[in-house]
TrEMBL record:
It catalyses: Release of an N-terminal amino acid, Xaa-|-Yaa-, in which Xaa is preferably Leu, but may be other amino acids including Pro although not Arg or Lys, and Yaa may be Pro. Amino acid amides and methyl esters are also readily hydrolyzed, but rates on arylamides are exceedingly low; Release of an N-terminal amino acid, preferentially leucine, but not glutamic or aspartic acids. One of its GO terms (biological process) is proteolysis. It is found in: Cytoplasm. It comes from Microvirga brassicacearum. Mn(2+) 1 binds at residues 267, 344, 346. It is an enzyme of class 3 (hydrolase). This is Probable cytosol aminopeptidase. Belongs to the peptidase M17 family.
Length: 496
């Protein structure tokens, strides 16, 4: 997907041509910066058009007016901010998405004079980020043009009180937007194009930003003892990989922080094969790994002042004659053994080895892992929240706050000794599936056995990362969920 959006920041000045985007609350009155440009006749024009279209100025609503001859623009686009309760929880990224959706393939002057609000440069940068994410599409495999598609570049000229400060804030966030887009692209790619080897190559591309990337092939993984991960991929003709990404933006003595992603590039279920209906969506079972790659891009692009490890386990789960079977027992890198009850409970096997490898080799301050791990989390939280499991209250709270601030929300789920007991096996140290009841919590309980005492959080993103609900900043199938959340976590708490 090629970017077709140009963004500039300017001081308040008269608009000339194109669209003029102005913001109004429920009283439909624009701010003073707008009134100066449109004159007192603006209120009457807006009121008349709003009455005709039944436009109430509700939050994230919009209406387009053909500009009268006296106004030197083509169209006036009204964007609603809502009432006092809406103003208190304004999501600037979503607001930017609304704007981009109304002025696609046009040049628009966006007057950032928001009645009832005093947006900071960071808020303006969030609007620009939202606009960029709204413009994303994944159509590289389409050979025929959509007759209903709007073609052409979009130019947004944000008029703000401090253009230099807004531009600086935007520069930092633009890399985050690119990170989200990288994650979306990875999840959207078809599985015949993106295997473990190809995914690892995408991670290697981060070296251009100064990220140190190390790719472990099957021979190296066998030597290290990541046998649970290798067992998942042994039914596929495509070799498994682990990619280790290191961003060294802190002091040499700083303890690193770590992010681990599940990267099952296609999940057939293996011998415990999935039903055919909807199996094509299992190309997205690597959304956790995609998020980690996007996050590492975001951190490196803004030169985050932290030492960060990103690790992803890349496998394909297929049912050939060499595939692992229900009843098999695998020995993990930690030495602990796992009885295979269901070969479709494979993601936790991948993560078990990568989590152990990361905590053992890098001694991180904390580990956050992301995985499209269980269908059970959708039953509990639908597609509105990611499930959060953690052994550390401080880390869990920081993730919750970052989630609320970015709109990538998490909900803490139970993780206790009862669930740990449910995964006990008659024949091994544990079993990889304890059945339907508490499925998300028993999966998390297994992962917890591979982090020792390291502060750790597991994000089950099965409902939020693919096929996720449409919003003003996401109109596609893959959301790139988690990049903005984790970038905010790092920015707010772990940079010196």
């Amino acid at each position: 997907m090629a970017d077709t959006l140009k963004i500039e920041f300017r001081a308040f000045e008269a608009a000339d041509g194109g669209d003029l985007v102005i913001f109004v609350g429920e009283n439909l009155k624009p701010g003073p910066a707008v009134a100066k440009r449109l004159g007192t006749a603006a209120n009457g024009l807006i009121a008349k058009a709003a009455a005709a279209e039944k436009f109430k100025g509700k939050a994230k609503s919009a209406m387009t007016i053909v500009a009268p001859a006296s106004v030197p623009v083509d169209r006036i686009v009204l964007v609603g901010l809502g009432g006092d309760k809406d103003l208190a929880k304004t999501d600037y990224a979503q607001l930017g998405g609304v704007v981009a959706g109304k002025v696609a393939a046009r040049t628009a002057t966006v007057v950032v004079d928001l009645p009832g609000l005093e947006p900071t440069p960071k808020n303006v940068a969030d609007m620009a980020l939202g606009a960029r994410l709204r413009g994303y599409s994944f159509d590289r495999y389409k050979t025929k043009k959509d007759d209903n598609a709007v073609d052409g570049a979009t130019t947004l000229l944000f008029q703000v009180a401090d253009p230099a400060a807004a531009k600086k804030a935007h520069k930092a966030l633009d890399g985050v937007a690119t990170g989200v887009i990288i994650a979306r692209d990875l999840v959207n790619e078809p599985p015949n194009v993106l295997g473990p080897k190809e995914f690892a190559a995408r991670a290697e591309a981060l070296s251009k930003l100064g990220v140190e990337v190390e790719i472990l092939n099957e021979k190296a993984l066998e030597k290290l003892g990541l046998r649970a991960l290798l067992a998942v991929g042994q039914g596929s003709e495509r070799e498994s990989r682990v990619a280790i990404m290191r961003w060294n933006g802190g002091k040499t003595s700083d303890q690193p922080i770590a992010f681990v992603g599940k990267g099952v590039v296609f999940d057939s279920g293996g011998i415990s094969i999935k039903p055919g209906g909807g199996m094509e969506d299992m190309k997205g079972d690597m959304a956790g790994a995609a998020c980690v790659v996007g996050l590492m891009h975001a951190l490196a692009s803004r030169k985050a002042k932290a030492n960060v490890i990103g690790a992803i386990g890349l496998v394909e789960n297929m049912p050939d004659g060499n595939a692992q079977r229900p009843g098999d027992i695998v020995t993990t890198m930690s030495g602990q053994t796992i009885e295979i009850i269901n070969t479709d409970a494979e993601g936790r096997l991948v993560l078990a080895d990568v989590l152990w490898y990361v905590q053992d080799r890098f001694k991180p301050k904390f580990i956050v892992n992301l995985a499209t791990l269980t269908g059970a989390i959708l039953v509990a939280l639908a597609q509105e929240y990611a499930g959060l499991f953690s052994n550390n209250d401080e880390l869990a709270e920081r993730l919750s706050v970052a989630g609320n601030e970015t709109g990538e929300r998490v909900w803490r789920m139970p993780l206790g000794p009862e669930f740990d007991k449910m995964i006990e096996s008659k024949f091994a140290d544990m079993k990889n599936s304890a059945g339907r009841l508490g499925g998300s919590s028993t999966a998390a309980a297994l992962l917890q056995r591979f982090v020792n005492d390291v502060p750790w959080a597991h994000l089950d993103i099965a409902g939020t990362a693919m096929g996720s609900p449409q919003s003003e900043i996401n109109k596609g199938w893959a959301s790139g969920w988690g990049v903005r959340l984790l970038d905010r976590l790092v920015h707010d708490h772990y940079e010196r």
